[in-house]
Amino acid sequence: MPTLVLLRHGQSVWNAKNLFTGWVDVPLSEQGEQEALRGGKLLADEGLLPDVVHTSLLRRAIATANIALDAADRHWIPVTRDWRLNERHYGALQGKDKKQTLEEFGEEQFMLWRRSYDTPPPPIEKGSEFSQDADPRYEGVDAPLTECLADVVARFLPYWESRVLPDLRAGKVVMLAAHGNSLRALVKYLDGISDTDIAGLNIPTGIPLVYELDEGFVPTTPGGRYLDPDAAEEAIAGVAAQGR
Ligand code: DG2
Predict the structure, then answer these.
(1) pLDDT tens digits, residue range 208-244?
(2) Among candidate residues 125, 147, 116, 201, the one with its CA nearest the CA of residue 22
(3) Residue 215 burial (CB < 10 Å; 0-12/13-18/19+)?
(4) Range of the domain at 26
(5) What is the active site of this protein (predicted)?
(6) How many domains does the chain have?
């Protein structure tokens, strides 16, 4: 049965500081490294050994995959990295404090920017401190200046179809090491979640979420299965409460 392991990176230093991150390339915090290690141990304990891994171009996802795969003794598997797995570009909010943003703009606007399906934050100014326009890793990419979740679905799905599905079809256990919102985009697609209901879905850091898929690549258990459901439940509440 095709098996997909989704892993949001461990806590980053900006997650710990409660800052909007998006495409800013911040490292894991010490806690995040521990979460990645725990994620890898959970995979090993379960005997769920990835054959290939796909990551974003951001070091928090890359480091998480490295640490987790090392812990599961799968550090040697083939890896593919692509900007299409990147976090949602958070536009002009990148680098801003979530609590201050909530206080300044109010709950409704804050949640529209964080969780609505189709309202992007204001675009980031080119050349500003947290923009990526001079970053060589995006050479040749029509990099966005902001994104809503619908934009992430639109840029992620071509990658899913052209790069991930062939691995699943070949019978490989596929791990995707990515981000809160890029994984929300994929889960929305896999589980057929509505544009409205996806607002209520949050993904915790560092806990593997496993999907078994049928021959049509539809999840056999909607929502998949977290390898540590109690820790996931607690961490999901923490993500939902960010900014408060
Ligand atoms: C977080 C998600 O992304 O933030 O960009 O700030 O997964 O890369 O840490 P990640 C960010 P929220 O949408 O949950 O506020």
Answers:
(1) 999 999 999 999 999 999 999 999 999 999 999 888 7
(2) 147
(3) exposed
(4) 3-240
(5) 9, 87
(6) 1
Q: Which residue ranges make up the annotated binding site for substrate?
A: 8-15, 21-22, 60, 87-90, 98, 114-115, 180-181
User: Which residue has 């923009």 as its token pair?
Assistant: 131
CB atoms within 10 A of CB 23: 26
What is the C-alpha separation between 52 and 240, in angstroms, rounded? 31
Q: Supply the DSSP symbol for 131.
A: -
Find the residues whose C-beta lies inside 6 A of ligand 1. Answer: 8, 12, 15, 20-22, 87, 90, 114, 179-181, 239, 242
Indicate the angle between helix axes 98-105 and 107-115, nearest 10 degrees: 130
User: What is the distance, to the nearest Å, from the Cα of residue 157 to the centroid of all Cα atoms in its chain?
Assistant: 14
Cα angle for residues 178, 179, 185 (degrees, 5° grid): 95
pLDDT digits (tens, 9 = 90+) for 100-155: 999 999 999 999 999 999 999 999 999 999 999 889 999 999 999 999 999 999 99
**Cα–Cα dist 208/179, whole Å:** 12
The per-residue pLDDT for 207 is 98
| Burial of residue 226, with CB atoms counted within 10 A of its CB: 0-12 exposed, 13-18 middle, 19 or more buried | buried
Which runs of E-coded beta strand occur in the chain? Answer: 3-8, 52-55, 79-81, 173-178, 209-212, 225-226
The H or E element that residue 173 is part of is strand 173-178
